[in-house]
Amino acid sequence: MIKGLRGATTWSEDLNNLLPFYRDLLGLPIAIQIPGFVVLGKLGAATLALGTHSEVRGRNADPARHMVALETDDVDAEWKRLSAAGVEFIEKPTDSGQLRIATMKDPEGNLIQLLQPIRG
Question: Do 16 and 38 reside in the same domain of the chain?
């Protein structure tokens, strides 16, 4: 029986293109690191892995195909901080139902959403 999502992986031609963005700029902690592969987040919870893959070349040609979502307590503050650091956003903070959302690109063009539950 499938119980839910445990994690997702974003592949790259070179892990070092992505790791500083996710680890240093976004602040995701490293749970596991081996050559060519890193698991970010807390083990036992949903994690995001980054890895080098022999079949991946260059920037993502179809970045809307999948998106990683990261939860935050303050989408607007993160949008300001990351925009000031030069991160490209394709959607500024916007209310969408019970979520406040902003959408950005990582260094290889993969889309990442910041999500903040709207408390009613």
Answer: yes
